[in-house]
Write a structure and sequence with these properties.
The protein is mainly α. The protein has one domain. It is 69% helix and 0% strand. Helix 5 runs antiparallel to helix 6. The radius of gyration is 14 Å and the shape is globular.
């Protein structure tokens, strides 16, 4: 999965990630972590997969990196790509 996410990253992001150690990613890699999460969500959307499961997992595992607002944003981004005009939004997100 990490290889697929790297492929989805633009060249600058790939270069930055290659230069980072795991320790650097954990201690000061907030921006890179945000990029990786965005690319992961993009992969789900491009594969026409619902983001519900991965969003819930990200909120459970890393709530400081993936918030309710991020989940809502991911759902809204799915609408034009999937053609679903009426997606169910979790009321707890509002």
């Amino acid at each position: 999965m990490l290889v697929m996410m790297m492929i989805a990253c633009i060249q600058d992001e790939q270069n930055s990630l290659r230069l980072m150690t795991f320790q650097m990613l954990l201690t000061s890699g907030r921006d890179m972590a945000d990029v990786l999460i965005k690319r992961l969500i993009d992969l789900y959307i491009c594969d026409s997969a619902a983001t519900d499961a991965i969003s819930a997992r990200l909120r459970d595992v890393c709530p400081s990196l993936y918030s309710c607002g991020d989940e809502l944003y991911s759902k809204v981004r799915q609408i034009p790509l999937t053609g679903h005009g009426s997606m169910q939004l979790n009321p707890s997100l509002f």
